[in-house]
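Late entry, written up from scratch paper. The run itself happened at the end of the previous shift, but nothing got recorded in the book at the time, so transcribing now.
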Amino acid sequence: MTYKKIPIPEIEAAKRKSQSDVFFTPVLFGGVFAIHADWWKKLKGFDPFLDIWSGEQFEMSFKTWMCGGEVIETPCSRVARVHRGSMNVPYSPRAAIERSMSNMPRVANVWMDEYKEFFFYRKPDRRFARLMTGIEQRFEIRQKLQCHSFDWFMKNINFNQPTYYPAVEPRSHAHGRARSQEHMMKCINRYDKKLMLSKCEGAPSISLTWRKEFIFDKDSQACLDVGSISKHDRKPIPTC
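Output as recorded:
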């Protein structure tokens, strides 16, 4: 449950005449959006037991689509958010992780049906997170509004995701050291976040993924790019 931007489906792209035209989107980008007040009340707003922030955009997106609404992205819109009073909640990476440890599993349990197992497969430590307070009320919303299943959501709204981010990633095509054809005793290595050729001994393993990306096995965010290797310059390693 990490927000990822993927290409607009062809059926949606064909309706647009310019880059400023609106389009349907499966999930909100963060918690800043505009919504009709009556619809907000009908959906019972955000889950009040989601702690501070983290996961609320998924809950609202799933709930909106599955219960009869639509989520539309407007590229040229401007929406402001003003905090009411003092938040008094200092941000820290550790605090963010702790909130997602309870918020994300709660959203998954309420809205994702059998698909929640894919989430817990990737995040097994979150299966037994603190969940139960008030959770019955969230299931009651689904029943009262006669909401669709999450399988319906994936097949009719978020059908484009598996092409780019499948629930279970296929195995890599190959992995190992990348040896130079010109200098057979040298392999691609990393030094200070830059690429270089050095002795193959100790060189990192690189995988050719199902996405046809060359990724360093010990750093899934660092990819090789055609333009990132030069005989003369040490180029920074691009982010995948």
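The chain has two domains: 10-164, 174-228.
(Scratch paper discarded after transcription.)
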